[in-house]
Amino acid sequence: MIRTRAAASLLLLLVACGGGGGDDRPDAAPPVGDPDFDDTAAYVEVQHRTYDEGGSLSIVGYLVTEAPIWPYEVEAPVGPCRFALRTPQDCGFDCDGVCVGDTCVAQPLVQPAGTITVTDGEATRTVAFGDAGYAHFEQALPFAPGATITVSAPGDVFGAFSLAAAAPAPLTHTNQDELVLEVGEPLVFRWTPNDPGSRLRLTLGADLGHARYRSALLECDVPDEAGEVAIPQVLVDRLADGALWSCGDCFSQSMRRYRKARGTAGALPLTLWVTDLETPYLQPPP
Fold this sequence. Notes:
- This protein is mainly beta.
- The protein has one helix spanning 233-239, and strands spanning 2-3, 43-51, 54-62, 72-74, 81-86, 98-100, 103-105, 109-110, 116-119, 124-127, 134-138, 148-153, 161-166, 188-190, 199-205, 216-223, 228-230, 254-265, 268-278.
- The protein is globular and about 50 Å long.
């Protein structure tokens, strides 16, 4: 059993069969314009990053049997976006879990499910359960865009599962020079919308305190076809509050083009995310 940190978005996170007993079909996409924030505590993410000279692959399995503590007050969405403020904390710097008020609380343990197999029918990667839970990284892109990626495990403490989703096309954001966070100024993220049927999850965070959890989070979720997400001004102004920020360079911001599938492992909900990641730079408030 391994204790790991819950991903911030992570978010962050299916075609179900095997030991899952799911409905054997991908989730229906929400209507265009509605955000899809229906994230599960347990997830596997197959993440691609594409560079001019190549790219990288990471595979993470966050297989928990209870929901992690999420130390944010998450507000109702405004349009396609939602805002979350870090709850007050006073645990000092020695807390290895999550600080709730003045109490350090351990996060749930990542559980073994046997070796995870990831394949598109041509390339295959296996990820064994180890000291870091389930984690794999390589400087290569073995899975082609559009290929159906199946992720499965035979089950152990965490139940058996077999989930599948198509790999999205590489993501290219197109307005880096315009990404300036300032009260009263619009903030729009744009990309090349060349992967119909996929979605885009934008996760922004303030960085006061250099802590494990950001002082505030702003997430947006839209269909890839939108080509942009204009953050509601009321949320821009809240994120631009200088009291939430330090240097502005302590965390990466993220744009993830994704396809996902959701099923179950035993009685537990589980999501497969297949993503392509960009990390735009957001100029912090003055």
